[in-house]
Amino acid sequence: MTYDILATDLTLLAPELLLAVGAMTLLMVGVFIRKDETAAKWVSLLTIGLLVAAGAAALFLVPVAGGTAFRGAFVFDPFALFSKVAICGAAALALFLAGPYLKAERLARFEFSVLVALAVLGMAMMVSANDLISLYMGVELQSLALYVLAAFNRDSLRASEAGLKYFVLGALSSGLLLYGASLVYGFSGSTGFNEIAIAVGDDPSVGLVFGLVFLICGLAFKVSAAPFHMWTPDVYEGAPTPVTAFFATAPKMAAMILLARLLYEPFGNAVDSWQQVIWIIAALSMAVGAFGALTQNNIKRLMAYSSIGNMGYALVAVAAASETGLWALLAFMILYMVGVIGAFGVILAMRTPEGMVEEVDDLSGLSQTRPGLAWSMTGIMFSIGGLPFLVGFFGKLFIFYAAVQAGLIWLVVIAALASVVAAAYYLRIVRVIWFNEPTQKFVTAPTPVGLVANLSGLATVLLVPVAAIVFLWARGASIGLI
């Protein structure tokens, strides 16, 4: 009987086992190849294959068994499996984009791909966490890999500063997370989500509420929600651009899903205790994202503030505290990642014969020098900004619908006003692309970069007819969590 339980647990953990064993194997492969560029190329390709395999395992292998593993420490429901597929896909695209940049900047080392695989392993554990201990294990495994990735360019002062800031503030957030977990354990007598839910009941104690607030603060740092966003602009600007592209997609998805699971499952009966906290964080994030980006000239810093604002919209769905809010969150995050990965594809194409450029004004006249990239960036900016009727618009529409249904009218009003303000800096980029005279002559973008940028730009329009599929998939994944 024990062997049957172990076999079931290992089957459920197939994506995580693939990533863990694969990362260690690829580490050895890179060591034995010896040549940096050759090792980096082959390990990168194999890591992309590994991520695809892990996503396929989550999609096809794990649903056959379903349930929980290791005495309830991990849960494998449609909500977690949906998230794992999205995370693996986003990480694979980010790694696909990174190759040409790392080679051009002489940063091609196989350790980069291994660190991405280990970070994704942590994210997979996060979205399946059903216990405070497994939650913390996943968060720290992801974070430790991301700290190193942020400072991957050891010769760059900006990258070293970004890595150090991320590490110091990340340690602070981990402290908040651990303190909150210890309070919850102390007042509930357990670390398992199911047992905590029983202890919370209909009238949670003051100690449990305090513990929950600390947990929310720790996870708010991971999604760069205000007022825990202070690391985001500096890290986005200082880290290598492919790392920033990775930061803006998969880790945000994992942390947001973990936050939703934490609030909806063990603290589902304490909605009145946490809804107002999420309400305030969402409003602050939307305001900071909208107004903070207006004065930014560096496009990576601008995208950092855009990310802060969009995480505010995602938190509106969480604040709805309903099944509708849950599937709206999933749909929004998928459609948001489509636009963001394409935006960073265009940023990676901003290379002149002298090297990379990152200022918004460097995009001047892009419509004349690179029409394909100009159309892609235009569609992506309009989509992230929520312009009807691109895919990003439907993501926000789902969230507004969930919030109105939950009676959060004032939060919807704030979100709508923030969208209007944020439209100013998205339109500024479009104006620079189409109405300014060229100031830079970009070299031809490498095939992976151009392919991702152009396909993402097309997806903002072409995905509209299949937005219903994303909606149905997200709705199916959210059933049963509440």
Automatic annotation (TrEMBL):
InterPro entries named in the record: NADH-Q_OxRdtase_suN/2, ND/Mrp_TM
Keywords attached to this entry: Cell membrane, Membrane, NAD, Quinone, Translocase, Transmembrane, Transmembrane helix, Transport, Ubiquinone
Catalytic reactions of this protein: a quinone + NADH + 5 H(+)(in) = a quinol + NAD(+) + 4 H(+)(out)
Known EC number: 7.1.1.-
Pfam families the UniProt entry points to: Proton_antipo_M
Quaternary structure and interacting proteins, as annotated: NDH-1 is composed of 14 different subunits. Subunits NuoA, H, J, K, L, M, N constitute the membrane sector of the complex.
NCBIfam families the record matches: NDH_I_N, PRK05777.1-3
Family in the record: Belongs to the complex I subunit 2 family.
Protein name in the entry: NADH-quinone oxidoreductase subunit N
Protein source organism: Hyphobacterium vulgare
Gene assigned in the entry: nuoN
